[in-house]
Amino acid sequence: TLKKDGYTQVTTGNTIKDYSGVVIYFSPEMEKEAIVVKNALLKSYPKISMQPAVKTNTETTQAPLSVIFGK
Q1: Is residue 33 helix, strand or coil?
Q2: What is the helix (H) or strand (E) element at residue 15, kind and residue range?
Q3: Which positions ≥6 away from 19 have C-beta within 8 Å?
Q4: Does the pLDDT at position 12 exceed 80?
Q5: What's the rounded Cα separation, in Å, for the pair 57 and 44?
Q6: How far apart are CA 30 and CA 19, in angstroms?
Q7: Position 10 pLDDT exceeds 80
Q8: Nearest 5°: phi and psi at 69?
Q9: What's the pLDDT score for residue 46?
Q10: Rounded CA gap, 35 and 50, in Å?
Q11: Would you say 53 and 27 are in contact if contact means Cβ atoms under 8 Å apart?
């Protein structure tokens, strides 16, 4: 969906921890961009949520904005 919407820097990977639901993790300066991404994904994932990245969790801080699709 993101690539179809024109996002060009989309990469995929697997997480080490188990996550549930679809969550956008963002660095403080990326909150506005996270809202834009959330709106782009909302139709396909109506329960999507946003959270600030957890500084001690490299899975949420690898990029300024990460979307994790959990179980």
Answers
A1: helix
A2: none
A3: 68, 69, 70, 71
A4: no
A5: 27
A6: 22
A7: no
A8: -100, 105
A9: 96
A10: 8
A11: yes
Report which secondary-structure segment, H or E, holds 58. Answer: helix 58-61
Instruction: Give the span between the Cα atoms of 5 and 42, in whole angstroms.
Output: 13
Both tokens of 35, joined, read 């809202």
Is pLDDT larger for residue 48 or for residue 12? 48
Among the listed residues 24, 6, 4, 8, the one whose alpha carbon sits nearest the alpha carbon of residue 68 = 24
Please state the three-class secondary structure of 9-71 as a single string.
CCCCCCCCCCCCCEEEEECHHHHHHHHHHHHHHCCCCCCCEEEECCCCCHHHHCCCEEEEECC
The encoded tokens of residue 51 equal: 């959270």
List of residues 6+ apart from 1 with CB closer than 8 A: 40, 41, 44
